[in-house]
Amino acid sequence: METIILDTDFETDCDDAGALCVLHALARRGNAAIAGVIASVHSPWPAAGVRALNLRLGRPDIPVGCNFDYPDSGRYRQHRERMPDRLYHRAMAEAVPEALPDRFRPEEGVALYRRLLEQAEDGSVTICAIGLLTLLAELLRQPGGRELVARKVKLLVSMANGVRPEGRPGFNWEMAPEAAAFVTAEWPTPILVSPIGGDVLTGAELARRVAADNLELLAYRKFGGGTPGFRRSSWDQLAVLAAADVLERSGFAARSEPGRIVFDPAGCSHRWTEPHGAPHWCLSLTRSPDESAAFVESFMAEVW
Asked: Which InterPro entries match (predicted)?
């Protein structure tokens, strides 16, 4: 069983909600222990949405962290401002009022990272980052942070389009480029980059299997503008399945030979080099998009 901390933006795409439900399903199956969930963007609402979903799924015990102190980039703020009607976290919290920011106070995100890691056994924690790397960069920068990560974290899974041999890594790294460059350069333990899921479309089967007031479905309906049978890419769900070591063991993905990914924040581009230091790998799908979607959606729906 993998001990997982999920780091999520939980705001501008519905696959974060799907990924959190997948993580709950993995916990129920005995594949993962959820150490905590940390919302990486500078707003109280993602943490409130996470709390609402955890409460609805019967897990009030899961610690939730929030980014109180580190502003988002101007580019990210502009992206968020362009889609106010598609943000789902506030609607989730309003459906579960105990999760609203005036009734639930999450922990400060970096402090929660430190607490969870300090309590963990050495080399036991997998961090799955499906959002911005802002708080992970701050964790590394704090006194003793890098040493704490080196001692406690066995793997960082980062959802980014970091395909080999080079390219642009996409939303999560480009929306916080300085943080992404710092983490990929300074992280002291192995990193698995997960670029897969763009053509793995999920959500329609979920809509057929759950009640109309389901919170996970609410996220897909809000993001999809109410489109019936809306389907969305499954980047984040696949990263969570990879973090739990389920994707590769089930024959749905394989990792590359070890190398080192180098990210240029000025040009928002990356390239792979020969390995040095802790290894980096890139994940690739080994099954068809339709087979992969059915596999992902089975986890998304079973928690309900």
From this structure: Inosine/uridine_hydrolase_dom, Ribo_hydro-like
